[in-house]
Amino acid sequence: MGSDYMQIISIVAGSSLAGAALYHLVWSYRLKRIKSGAEIEAKAIISEAQLDAKRIKDSEDFEIQKKADLLETKVVEMEKLSASLTEKKKQIEQSDCQLSERKKEVEKELMEIESLRKSYLAKLEEHVSIPKEAIKDELREQIEIDAKKELNLLKKELLEKTETELEAEARDMLLTAMQRLSSNPATEATATIVDLPSEDMKGRIIGREGRNIRSFEAVTGTTLMIDETPDSVLISAFDPVKREIARATLEHLLKDGRIHPSTIEIAYDDAKSKVLKDVQSLGEEAIMKLKLTPPSKEILELVGKLHFRLSLNQNSLEHSIEVAFIASMLASEIGLDPSIAKRAALFHDLGKAMDHEFEGSHAEVAAKFLERYDEDWRVVNAVAASHEEVPAESAYAPLITIADRISAIRPGARSDSMDSYVERVKSLEKIAKQHDGVKDAFALQAGREIRVIVEPTKLSDEEARKLATKISREIEDSMHYPSTIKITVIREQRFCETAK
């Protein structure tokens, strides 16, 4: 029993030792594997760190080399620039030396000339018993006489000949342009009298207690004049477009037969729409007739409104178209752009179609309006200078002035009769000739300008200037005339000598 017990204890003890040994072996093996894996991972980390370090080093070396190359390039460029500046400096220094030498030479020459001059004057004083100041005055006077002779000869040979040739050439151009233009005088007047179907219609137009006529005048902005003239009424208004709308309104009411405040407003709206369409059409027709690029709608509307404007019974739109054709032909003759000339001529009276809200002369307000819509500066200036109110900045401005005057003075263009024209011209010349010292006087440009030639021995320049002012005031006080009259007083004195 005891031996069995001991045997069992021995077996258990041996088993425990064997298990412990096996456990030790297992853990030893696992530790070796863990150690081996850690070594391998450590080597991998070290290897990767070495590669990263190499890449960083290579990248830094590349950047350093790149910067070094760039710096070297800049150094080379700076050396080249320095060499160039050094060369230029040498050239400048050389030029300075040459200039300095030339300056010394010039100063030396001037000193020699001054020395010769003094020597000449000294010898002259020795041989001639005349004071030095008297000699200077005599020489100066002789030089002035010789210079005047040369200038007079030069003027006679060149200037006068050139003026004659230019006048002949200009005359030929104007005659050619005027002969090429073939158009009928535009003297039709806008109707302001409306015929009535019967005398009884006047009462219906007036209405009960005058309500219809008051409504008509308030809506149209015109005055309706009903007097004893049989079967007709007169529409009065300064604005011709308003007057035309009122005429169309009244004719529509007469045709419809119903006349009271409500129908007046309806008829007015219809008439206004129709007239404004006609205005636009008239502007488009003018642009098409002249073959121009269409302007803005606002400018086109003003062009159409010129049809309803009259200047001394001359239709303003027809006058502007005629001026455009004349200006185009003149521009072609002297080598300017005919399209610009036509455009400026068509717009030159545009201010006459603008109402009182625009302050200034019709040329001034038209120019500002055209400038607002980006018209060519040459067109704007030609319009502004068409009546010589501002300086002409291009050749188109005087061209439009000439064409405008040609159209205005053409016989039949305006309502002036030949008798009144002749009388006005004679009156202008008579006013000028009645003054002392006046040799002759000529009225030009249909009485728009008068040139007065005076005796140079009787009147000085200042007296001639005062004479122009005096004649101007006398014309203003004694005559009635359209537009303006330019007074030019000419005082000319010539000296002629013959060399033998």
Entry keywords:
single chain, 500 residues, mainly alpha, Hypothetical protein af1432, 4 domains, three-stranded antiparallel β-sheet, three-stranded mixed β-sheet, 7% strand
Describe the protein's architecture and organization.
This protein has 500 residues and is mainly alpha-helical. It folds into four domains: 1-91; 131-180; 193-409, Hypothetical protein af1432, CATH 1.10.3210; 418-490, 2-Layer Sandwich (GMP Synthetase, Chain A, domain 3). 69% of the residues lie in helices and 7% in strands. A hairpin with a 2-residue loop joins strand 4 and strand 5. The protein is flat, with a radius of gyration of 52 Å. It starts with a helix and ends in a 10-residue tail after the last strand. Mean pLDDT is 77; it is low at 182-191.
Q: What is the CATH architecture annotation of the largest domain?
A: Orthogonal Bundle
Label the structural class.
mainly alpha
User: How much strand content do the residues show?
Assistant: 5-15%
Helix content: 55-70%
CATH H level of the largest domain: which superfamily? Hypothetical protein af1432
**Tally of domains:** 4
Secondary structure elements and their pairing?
Elements: H1 2-127, H2 132-180, E1 193-195, H3 201-206, H4 211-220, E2 223-225, E3 232-236, H5 240-256, H6 261-290, H7 297-305, E4 310-311, E5 314-315, H8 316-334, H9 338-347, H10 362-372, H11 377-384, H12 396-409, H13 418-433, E6 438-444, E7 449-454, H14 461-478, E8 486-490
Parallel strand pairs: 7-8
Antiparallel strand pairs: 1-3, 2-3, 4-5, 6-7
Compact overview of the structure:
By secondary structure, the protein is mainly α. The chain has helices at residues 2-127, 132-180, 201-206, 211-220, 240-256, 261-290, 297-305, 316-334, 338-347, 362-372, 377-384, 396-409, 418-433, 461-478, and strands at 193-195, 223-225, 232-236, 310-311, 314-315, 438-444, 449-454, 486-490.
